[in-house]
Design a protein that fits this description.
single chain, mainly beta, four-stranded mixed beta sheet
Length: 181
């Protein structure tokens, strides 16, 4: 529609009636959730419709908040009403599979020794807590060790707590001699 004054005249059986109205065009709230996107498994995406300047919001899951945390695949839409007009936008979310990084359970090794931590993944990029990038790490002191793996557009982190067990201490006593028989 175009803004302006509109007048209508009707003639019926020799009688004429007319009325006019002023039309004002109001632009609806501009909402843009962004391009379709992917998130990593066990991660989420915050969608924010508040920049549209709406007074009320309605999301595809029934939420009426200005933001929505999304962690599942599918089409998500929002309707934003500014008190006069309603605008709608949607975004398609896909979920990338998890890498499945697992360093194993917390464990211990003998004092003075070492323990080799290994990744269970194949073709990914690694970063250990010390910045090294090998698929394995030789730990020689107790502590928390972590590995961050990146691949297929996702990044995962796992950690393990290693403790050093003291070596057994014992004394056999002084050297001694025994008589045969």
């Amino acid at each position: 529609s175009k803004a302006g004054k509109y007048k209508v005249t009707i003639e019926l059986s020799g009688c004429t009636a007319s009325d006019s109205t002023q039309v004002r065009v109001i632009s609806p709230a501009a909402i843009n959730l962004g391009r379709d996107t992917s998130i990593c498994d066990r991660q989420s995406l915050l969608l924010d419709a508040s920049k549209a300047g709406g007074r009320t919001y309605l999301w595809s899951n029934g939420s009426t908040a200005a933001t929505l945390q999304v962690a599942t695949a599918g089409l998500v839409w929002v309707e934003v009403n500014d008190g006069q007009c309603t605008a709608r936008d949607s975004i398609n979310i896909s979920v990338l599979p998890a890498l499945g990084l697992n360093l194993g359970r917390d464990t211990s090794f003998c004092e003075g020794g070492s323990f080799t931590l290994r990744s269970n993944l194949g073709n990914v990029t690694y970063r250990w807590q010390d910045g090294s990038s090998n698929a394995s790490f030789q730990a020689s002191t107790a502590g928390v060790y972590w590995l961050e793996a990146s691949g297929n557009g996702c990044t995962e982190r796992d950690s393990v707590n290693l403790s050093a067990q003291p070596l057994p201490r014992f004394e056999l006593g002084p050297d001694t001699s025994l008589c045969d028989g």
